[in-house]
C-alpha cells in the first residue's frame, strides 16, 4: 500500500522544483526551460504504401503486424484513412528494422527471405510473427545486430 506522506512529499518537491511546462512545438511561449514535443504528423495509408511497396510483405502480414484485419487495411486504402498513433509507432519501428535488414543483407528481399525462414536466435526462433510485438521487434533487431557484428547465434 502506498504511503500518503511519500506521495505528498513527492508532489511538494515536484511543484517546488524548476520543472516547466512541456509544450508542443506550436510556437507558444513557455517558461524558462521548454521541452518541445515533436508534432504528430498524420500517418495515412498513402504514407504506409510508400514503404510497404518496397517490402515483399503480404497484406495479411501487414495486418498481423498492425493487429488489424486485412479488410480494415483495404478500407484504409479506399479512403486513404489515417492510422491510429499506436500503428504509426509500430510502422516506424518496422521501417527502421527494414533499414537495418537491408544494411545487413544488402537487399530488402533478402531480409524478408531471412525472416520467412524462422531463423534461430538466442531467444528462440524468430520470424514474421516476431514483428507482431514490440519484444519480437527488439529480438529481431538484436539478431540483425549480432549478424552485422559477425556473431551468429
Quick structural gist:
With 153 residues, this protein is mostly helical. The protein has 7 helices and 4 strands, in the order αββαααααββα.
Tell me what the structure shows.
The protein is mainly alpha-helical and 153 residues long. Helix content is 56%, strand content 7%. It has 7 helices and 4 strands. Strand 3 and strand 4 form a beta hairpin. Helix 5 crosses helix 6 and helix 5 packs parallel to helix 7. The chain is elongated and about 45 Å long. The relative contact order is 0.09. About 10% of the residues have low confidence.
Helix and strand topology:
Blueprint: H1 4-16, E1 22-24, E2 35-37, H2 45-52, H3 59-66, H4 70-79, H5 85-105, H6 108-116, E3 120-121, E4 124-125, H7 134-149
Parallel strand pairs: 1-2
Antiparallel strand pairs: 3-4
Keywords:
mainly alpha, 4 strands, 7 helices, single chain, two-stranded parallel ribbon, 153 residues, elongated, two-stranded antiparallel sheet
Amino acid at each position: 500500500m502506498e504511503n500518503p506522506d511519500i506521495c505528498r512529499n513527492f508532489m511538494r518537491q515536484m511543484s517546488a522544483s524548476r520543472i516547466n511546462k512541456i509544450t508542443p512545438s506550436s510556437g507558444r511561449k513557455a517558461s524558462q526551460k521548454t521541452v518541445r514535443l515533436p508534432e504528430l504528423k498524420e500517418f495515412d495509408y498513402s504514407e504506409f504504401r510508400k514503404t510497404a511497396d518496397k517490402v515483399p510483405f503480404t497484406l495479411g502480414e501487414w495486418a498481423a503486424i498492425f493487429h488489424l484485419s486485412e479488410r480494415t487495411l483495404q478500407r484504409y486504402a479506399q479512403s486513404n484513412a489515417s492510422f491510429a498513433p499506436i500503428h504509426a509507432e509500430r510502422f516506424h519501428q518496422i521501417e527502421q528494422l527494414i533499414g537495418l535488414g537491408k544494411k545487413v543483407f544488402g537487399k530488402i528481399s533478402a531480409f524478408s527471405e531471412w525472416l520467412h525462414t524462422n531463423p534461430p536466435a538466442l531467444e528462440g526462433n524468430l520470424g514474421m510473427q516476431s514483428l507482431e510485438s514490440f519484444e519480437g521487434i527488439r529480438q529481431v533487431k538484436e539478431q540483425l545486430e549480432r549478424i552485422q557484428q559477425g556473431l551468429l547465434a
